[in-house]
Amino acid sequence: MAAHFIWFALAVVLVIAELASLTLYLLMLALGAVAAGIGAVFGLGVGAQIVIAALVALAGFAVLRRLPYGKVRRGAAATDPSVNLDIGQEVDVPAWDADGRARVPYRGAQWNVQLREGAVPMLAPGRYRIVEVRGNTLFVMPRQ
């Protein structure tokens, strides 16, 4: 079997795996495999094919990292409403204790509630908006 068929078959397998993972990094490896396959068609040796595959994949990684799709997102899941659907919801706090904490029913269970750091300490009963979730504690801000 000719080397270029192996490279092109590897590229197809990588594209299929990319469709399952949706990371775009496997697509860069597939582009490297296609470039190596083209090098094989032109009669380059196996070592040169591997170098071409690596260089094209690395160049693809570098370009991908500069695009918004390749950026590493380091946001905290505790405050990200696209990860935690509780962010932005409201709870009724009937009373606060002396430590600035409360227990409230929310989604069929009792939750600890605490004002988020930096919030104006108005510990009046009322509706509060959830801005962060850590464990079984809801961090809230006064509703505006």
Question: Could you please describe the fold and organization of this structure?
Answer:
Strands 1-4-5-3-2 form a five-stranded mixed sheet, with no helix packed on it. Strand 4 and strand 5 form a beta hairpin. The protein is of the alpha+beta class and 144 residues long. 40% of the residues lie in helices and 22% in strands. The protein starts with a helix and ends with a strand. It holds the Pfam family NfeD.
* Count of alpha and pi helical runs: 3
Strand order of the largest sheet: 1-4-5-3-2
Q: What is the radius of gyration? A: 26 Å
The unreliable regions are none
Main sheet specs: 5 strands, mixed
Mean pLDDT: 86
SSE order in H/E notation? HHHEEEEE
Report, as a whole number of angstroms, the end-to-end distance: 69 Å
Strand fraction: 15-25%
Structural class: alpha+beta
Beta-strand segment tally: 5
* Helicity range: 25-40%
The global form is rod-shaped
Pfam families: NfeD (PF01957)
Organism: Cupriavidus respiraculi
Domain NfeD-like C-terminal: 84-142
Keywords: Membrane, Transmembrane, Transmembrane helix
Notable traits:
single chain, 144 residues, five-stranded mixed beta sheet, rod-shaped, alpha+beta
Write the layout of secondary structure elements.
Layout: H1 3-21, H2 25-41, H3 46-66, E1 90-93, E2 101-106, E3 109-115, E4 126-134, E5 137-142
Helix pairs in contact: 1-2, 2-3
Briefly say what this structure is:
By secondary structure, this protein is of the alpha+beta class. Helix content is 40%, strand content 22%. Strands 1-4-5-3-2 form a five-stranded mixed β-sheet, with no helix packed on it.
